[in-house]
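User: Sequence in, structure out. Go.
Assistant: Echoing your sequence, followed by the structure tokens.
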Amino acid sequence: MRRMEEQALSQYDGTWDKLYIAARKVQYERKSSHLLEVGSVSVALLTEKGDICVGVCMDATCSLRMCAERNAIANMITNGENQIVKIVVVMSDGKVGMPCRTCQKFFMQLDKDAGKIEILCDYATKKVIQLGKLFQDW
């Protein structure tokens, strides 16, 4: 049993935990004004250069909306990067969720290797899916 534990630890790098914690640090639902609610969903993504970019959702009464995913991407692009390696979406209940379909399509348009982006589907089991699996005919 000890050998299995050692092997598991040798493969563990803590990246998913770091991303989850980074997303949770910026996530707190609040009203920016009586017309704008922010922060119920948060995202952390790992760039190809190893940076972590975060974002929160923004919902305005004028029906203008910015997903946490797009907010994190804007953060990444503003900082001169365009390749995502891993992404974690944290829902308002603290559980990991999937990016919305619109954002999934947006990810696919970022660069030619976007299909390799890993999305955390379940935090407890560390279940992951590659974005390209969601777009077989892209």
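User: And one key feature?
Assistant: The CA atoms of residues 101 and 118 lie 15 Å apart.
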